[in-house]
Design a protein that fits this description.
Residues 25-91 form the RNA polymerase sigma-70 region domain. Residues 124-176 form the RNA polymerase sigma factor 70 region 4 type domain. Keywords: DNA-binding, Sigma factor, Transcription, Transcription regulation. This is Sigma-70 family RNA polymerase sigma factor. By secondary structure, the chain is mainly α. The chain has two domains: 1-92, Orthogonal Bundle (Rna Polymerase Sigma Factor, Chain: A); 112-185, Winged helix-like DNA-binding domain superfamily/Winged helix DNA-binding domain (Arc Repressor Mutant, subunit A, Orthogonal Bundle). The chain is 69% helix and 0% strand. Helix 1 (7-15) packs across helix 2 (19-41) and helix 7 (151-158) crosses helix 8 (162-180). It starts with 6 loop residues before the first helix and ends in a 5-residue tail after the last helix.
Amino acid sequence: MSENQTDEELMLAYRDGDAGAFDVLYRRHRARLYRFLSHETGSPAAGEELYQEVWMTLIRSRERYVVSAKFSTYLYQIAHSRLVDWFRSHGKVRLEALDEDAPEPPAEACWQPDRQLDQRQEADRLRHCLSQLPPQQREAFLLKEEGEFSLDDIAQLVGVNAETIKSRIRYAISKLRNCLGGLLA
Protein backbone atom coordinates (compact mmCIF):
# COMPACT_ATOMS: atom_id res chain seq x y z
CA MET A 1 0.00 0.00 0.00
CA SER A 2 1.39 3.34 -1.00
CA GLU A 3 1.32 6.28 1.39
CA ASN A 4 0.80 8.43 -1.74
CA GLN A 5 -2.62 6.99 -2.53
CA THR A 6 -5.66 9.12 -1.80
CA ASP A 7 -7.90 8.20 1.09
CA GLU A 8 -10.60 7.25 -1.37
CA GLU A 9 -8.25 4.88 -3.25
CA LEU A 10 -7.17 3.35 0.05
CA MET A 11 -10.76 2.81 1.19
CA LEU A 12 -11.64 1.19 -2.13
CA ALA A 13 -8.60 -1.08 -1.76
CA TYR A 14 -9.67 -1.92 1.80
CA ARG A 15 -13.21 -2.59 0.61
CA ASP A 16 -11.73 -5.03 -1.88
CA GLY A 17 -9.76 -6.90 0.79
CA ASP A 18 -6.45 -5.06 1.26
CA ALA A 19 -6.01 -4.82 5.05
CA GLY A 20 -2.86 -2.73 4.62
CA ALA A 21 -4.96 0.05 3.13
CA PHE A 22 -6.92 0.24 6.38
CA ASP A 23 -3.67 0.62 8.34
CA VAL A 24 -2.71 3.66 6.26
CA LEU A 25 -6.17 5.24 6.63
CA TYR A 26 -6.12 4.63 10.37
CA ARG A 27 -2.71 6.27 10.78
CA ARG A 28 -3.81 9.28 8.75
CA HIS A 29 -7.02 9.95 10.65
CA ARG A 30 -6.66 8.56 14.16
CA ALA A 31 -5.36 11.63 16.04
CA ARG A 32 -7.76 14.21 14.58
CA LEU A 33 -10.75 11.90 14.93
CA TYR A 34 -9.92 11.07 18.55
CA ARG A 35 -9.42 14.76 19.45
CA PHE A 36 -12.69 15.70 17.78
CA LEU A 37 -14.67 13.02 19.62
CA SER A 38 -13.00 13.75 22.96
CA HIS A 39 -13.72 17.46 22.65
CA GLU A 40 -17.30 16.86 21.58
CA THR A 41 -18.08 14.47 24.43
CA GLY A 42 -15.97 16.33 26.97
CA SER A 43 -14.38 13.10 28.11
CA PRO A 44 -11.34 11.22 26.85
CA ALA A 45 -12.99 7.97 27.97
CA ALA A 46 -16.21 8.67 26.06
CA GLY A 47 -14.16 9.93 23.12
CA GLU A 48 -12.21 6.67 23.10
CA GLU A 49 -15.41 4.62 23.24
CA LEU A 50 -16.93 6.51 20.31
CA TYR A 51 -13.61 6.43 18.46
CA GLN A 52 -13.68 2.62 18.60
CA GLU A 53 -17.33 2.57 17.51
CA VAL A 54 -16.57 4.79 14.50
CA TRP A 55 -13.77 2.53 13.30
CA MET A 56 -15.85 -0.60 13.91
CA THR A 57 -18.73 0.91 11.92
CA LEU A 58 -16.34 1.67 9.09
CA ILE A 59 -15.00 -1.89 9.17
CA ARG A 60 -18.48 -3.44 9.22
CA SER A 61 -19.71 -1.29 6.33
CA ARG A 62 -16.63 -1.48 4.11
CA GLU A 63 -18.26 -3.73 1.49
CA ARG A 64 -20.90 -1.04 0.83
CA TYR A 65 -18.40 1.81 0.44
CA VAL A 66 -18.64 3.84 -2.76
CA VAL A 67 -16.87 7.11 -3.42
CA SER A 68 -19.54 9.78 -3.15
CA ALA A 69 -17.51 12.35 -1.21
CA LYS A 70 -14.08 12.66 0.35
CA PHE A 71 -13.22 9.76 2.63
CA SER A 72 -12.76 12.14 5.57
CA THR A 73 -16.32 13.36 5.05
CA TYR A 74 -17.53 9.76 5.07
CA LEU A 75 -15.56 9.00 8.25
CA TYR A 76 -16.84 12.08 10.06
CA GLN A 77 -20.41 11.36 8.97
CA ILE A 78 -20.06 8.10 10.85
CA ALA A 79 -18.58 10.01 13.81
CA HIS A 80 -21.41 12.57 13.68
CA SER A 81 -24.01 9.80 13.75
CA ARG A 82 -22.31 8.08 16.69
CA LEU A 83 -22.14 11.42 18.54
CA VAL A 84 -25.84 12.10 17.99
CA ASP A 85 -26.64 8.63 19.35
CA TRP A 86 -24.27 9.14 22.30
CA PHE A 87 -25.77 12.51 23.26
CA ARG A 88 -29.28 11.08 23.05
CA SER A 89 -28.47 8.00 25.10
CA HIS A 90 -26.67 10.06 27.76
CA GLY A 91 -29.24 12.85 27.83
CA LYS A 92 -26.46 15.37 27.32
CA VAL A 93 -26.63 18.58 25.40
CA ARG A 94 -23.36 20.26 26.29
CA LEU A 95 -19.71 19.51 26.78
CA GLU A 96 -18.59 18.94 30.35
CA ALA A 97 -15.07 19.72 31.54
CA LEU A 98 -12.48 17.28 30.25
CA ASP A 99 -11.07 14.70 32.66
CA GLU A 100 -7.96 15.73 34.50
CA ASP A 101 -6.16 12.62 33.24
CA ALA A 102 -6.54 13.66 29.61
CA PRO A 103 -3.38 13.03 27.60
CA GLU A 104 -0.94 15.90 27.74
CA PRO A 105 0.78 17.23 24.65
CA PRO A 106 4.41 16.12 24.28
CA ALA A 107 6.76 17.96 26.62
CA GLU A 108 9.23 20.40 25.14
CA ALA A 109 12.92 19.55 25.09
CA CYS A 110 13.59 22.08 27.84
CA TRP A 111 11.33 21.76 30.86
CA GLN A 112 9.78 25.12 31.71
CA PRO A 113 7.33 24.72 34.60
CA ASP A 114 5.97 28.28 34.39
CA ARG A 115 5.27 27.94 30.70
CA GLN A 116 3.69 24.51 31.16
CA LEU A 117 1.45 25.89 33.90
CA ASP A 118 0.41 28.79 31.67
CA GLN A 119 -0.31 26.42 28.77
CA ARG A 120 -2.36 24.12 30.98
CA GLN A 121 -4.35 27.06 32.35
CA GLU A 122 -4.98 28.33 28.82
CA ALA A 123 -6.08 24.85 27.73
CA ASP A 124 -8.41 24.63 30.74
CA ARG A 125 -9.89 28.04 29.86
CA LEU A 126 -10.40 26.97 26.26
CA ARG A 127 -12.11 23.72 27.33
CA HIS A 128 -14.34 25.72 29.65
CA CYS A 129 -15.19 28.20 26.89
CA LEU A 130 -15.88 25.36 24.43
CA SER A 131 -18.24 23.85 27.00
CA GLN A 132 -20.25 27.08 26.99
CA LEU A 133 -20.93 26.99 23.24
CA PRO A 134 -24.25 25.69 21.95
CA PRO A 135 -23.72 22.14 20.62
CA GLN A 136 -24.22 23.04 16.95
CA GLN A 137 -21.70 25.90 17.14
CA ARG A 138 -19.20 23.75 19.05
CA GLU A 139 -19.53 20.93 16.51
CA ALA A 140 -19.05 23.25 13.52
CA PHE A 141 -16.06 24.95 15.17
CA LEU A 142 -14.38 21.65 16.11
CA LEU A 143 -14.97 20.12 12.67
CA LYS A 144 -13.28 23.14 11.13
CA GLU A 145 -10.41 23.43 13.62
CA GLU A 146 -9.82 19.82 14.68
CA GLY A 147 -11.15 18.04 11.60
CA GLU A 148 -9.77 20.64 9.18
CA PHE A 149 -12.91 20.44 7.06
CA SER A 150 -14.09 23.10 4.63
CA LEU A 151 -17.42 24.85 5.19
CA ASP A 152 -18.97 22.83 2.36
CA ASP A 153 -17.72 19.56 3.84
CA ILE A 154 -19.10 20.45 7.28
CA ALA A 155 -22.42 21.44 5.72
CA GLN A 156 -22.61 18.07 3.98
CA LEU A 157 -21.64 16.26 7.18
CA VAL A 158 -24.33 17.81 9.37
CA GLY A 159 -26.99 18.27 6.68
CA VAL A 160 -27.33 22.06 6.54
CA ASN A 161 -26.19 24.67 4.03
CA ALA A 162 -22.72 26.21 4.05
CA GLU A 163 -24.02 29.65 5.05
CA THR A 164 -25.50 28.15 8.21
CA ILE A 165 -22.15 26.56 9.02
CA LYS A 166 -20.37 29.84 8.33
CA SER A 167 -22.70 31.58 10.77
CA ARG A 168 -22.28 28.90 13.43
CA ILE A 169 -18.50 29.16 13.20
CA ARG A 170 -18.59 32.96 13.25
CA TYR A 171 -20.80 32.95 16.36
CA ALA A 172 -18.62 30.30 18.00
CA ILE A 173 -15.46 32.33 17.41
CA SER A 174 -17.12 35.45 18.73
CA LYS A 175 -18.29 33.68 21.88
CA LEU A 176 -14.88 32.05 22.37
CA ARG A 177 -13.17 35.44 22.00
CA ASN A 178 -15.46 36.96 24.59
CA CYS A 179 -14.99 34.05 26.95
CA LEU A 180 -11.22 34.05 26.55
CA GLY A 181 -10.97 37.81 26.91
CA GLY A 182 -10.10 38.51 23.29
CA LEU A 183 -7.20 36.02 23.16
CA LEU A 184 -8.56 34.08 20.17
CA ALA A 185 -7.20 35.43 16.87
